[in-house]
Input
Amino acid sequence: MFSEINRAIRSRGKSRDFCRVRVIHFQPGRFELKLHRAFRFLIVSAFLLGQTNPGIVFSQGAAASNLDGFTSEGSSAERRWEDEFRIGPAPNSAREHLRRLTAQPHVAGTKEDYSTAVYVRDQIRSYGISSDLREYEVLLPYPKQPAIVELVSPHRERLTAKEAIIPEDPSSSNPKIIPLFNGYSPSGDVTAPLVYVNYGLPPDYDALKKLGIDVTGKIVIARYGNSFRGVKAKVAEDHGARGLIIYSDPADDGYMQGDVYPKGPWRPASSAQRGSVQFLSTAPGDPLTPGKPAVPGVPRLKIDEVKTLPRIPVQPISYGDARRLLEPLRGPVRPKGFQGGLPFPYHVGGTEFVRVHLKTVMDYQVRKIWNVISRIDGDEEKDRWVVMGNHRDAWTFGAVDPNSGTTAMLEAARAFGSLLKKGWKPRRTIVLCSWDGEEYGLLGSTEWVEENAAELKQKAVAYLNVDSAVSGSNFGASSVPSMWKLIRSATRDIKDPKTSQTVYQQWQERARDEQPDPELTNAEAGSDTSIAEARIGALGSGSDFTPFLQHLGIPSSDMGFGGDYGVYHSAYDSFYWMSHFGDPSFAYHVAAAQLWGTLAMRLADADGLPLDYRDYALQVREFFEESMKTARRRKLAVGFDEKAMMNAVQKFSEEAERVEKARQDTVAEIERTRVEASDRHPRAVARLQRINDALTAVERSLTDDRGLRGRTWYTHQIYAPGTYTGYAAQPLPDFRQALDDRNTENAREALDRIIAALNRATETLKGATDTVRGQSAGTSPPSSP
Ligand SMILES: [Zn+2]
Output
């Protein structure tokens, strides 16, 4: 699918829309940075100075040069294996994987999709790694015929609703390219007046209402952008519309951004964006088996019992086609923010003057999909899993989305294979997952997570997602705060192919360039390093990390190299596009494989898991402060137990600090006692195991089995996709939602649950240090726990 990262990491100056999203939803924007700095200044005495600054390495004597969580011996061994690993991935074989994976369109559930599953499995087996298919039976609609979109009045005109063949791109004439459609649109046949609803989000309908425009019984046309498309469907339906047309405005990813394909990388006039309109913010996965794996014998809902799919027909069109519908519209002219990039003033319509006919015919069936699950067993901790995941299914050829990521996974697997032959034995198990059915609504990952929930809750250390690995050269990442330091440290060890710098430096420099804030002097802003630190975003949804983080509470990350990418979910997301625009040398595919594998190796091999909850505490506090600002602005800040929340955060922070120190000390003690061959050694090892177990369990403590209000599949109390964003995160989701709904009762209850979750997380951390206190480091006398 598409995570917000893709937008965030577009080249500078092209991320206008995204910026707006970031400010509202805690993505790393200028506003947030200001807040971050001001906040840090205020809490210097409460939190430990500098240690929340990711630029400062937490170090203890000799450990300073060690990889985080490794003894010096372990660290140098790890560095040797990692260096060896990073030699593995190669541009030529990456190119060959991508060529093979994108040879045919491979929509979930088709035989071409099955072929890609077999290709991935057989490749991974050929590297000496065990690999198997896992099948699920899920509800999957395909269009039975191309949709009809026609202007009925003021004159009759049938739109093309088809992407043109581009002579330069040989695959664009492939007859198997699926017609333009939205996944999970129902069949429908509607003729009605047309209303232009801008992005199709609640504020847009409010603006229309003020102009006296009612969309009940009408067909609405919305532009893509600012939210997941399923949100647009839900909002249109809730407002009484009978049909929804979504088009790609040239201002978003067409000619307003630059040259269009095949001259440039941006969307040409006939191209449209396919994509799912499932209500992702309510629940992802197979719509018929919510919360349960879609395997034979599991009871299925009837289609009319399903609450996560739209009931009105939804259809994507190109801006070439949209122009035919929008230009004749009358009614009020461009309310604030409604104007897009087509060369005429946008009217909102709503009169009988423009009438439109929309007809979609879908073939809904329960069909098979295939995950490919591969496994490298851990040598010492087989029952601790580091999970890497990427989806494989695509709307068409999927050169960027998602098979640049599949290619990176295959290259990482190939390099793991050669390490194994040379004697590398990861301490923990590495699981590599190639998901199916992601584009329809994270089907493959969700069903697998639901099937293996109990085992994952016990064994999973972290989940590392890569969806679109490469559409350019700009690195971006989102993750839980406990993984920030780990991600930054790994990017410091990967070379950026284009410059002679590291990926970290390139990323950091872009971050610095992107925050010119003339109002802030350095003194106001804090130190230079902190201003320049590349920020890692919050996880919302739109890719396969969602079931791991937001259903089970497994620490997760998502990352990729972004760029000027205007062919998203179109027939032109092809090998030709990639080899002419995205990554002609395939060097970024190699970098993605190196980085992803390095992260997995560090998590798999470290003695003490490199998860740091001090950053998490700081982040939660920022989220809360920001929410309270909103509350005060809306005069809702009465009756919340602000103090209890601040206390909970403070305790969580203090405990995180203690565990971090214990982890560092215990790793040092293991090193020392091993050299001394002391009988304290096994006890230190056992102690570190308890610390690791606690670090693994903290994220789980932040979930609440009762689930979020009105969407119980989502259990995480800190991170969820926004109800009205879908892609972008809505941190402290129920609390924020209650504030948006101006419901103080709900807000109070949500805050109580968040406080309880934080207290549980603190208790989990205490489990690690209670037995450690007073006997950490080598100076304390040996004592039995
Ligand atoms: Zn994708």
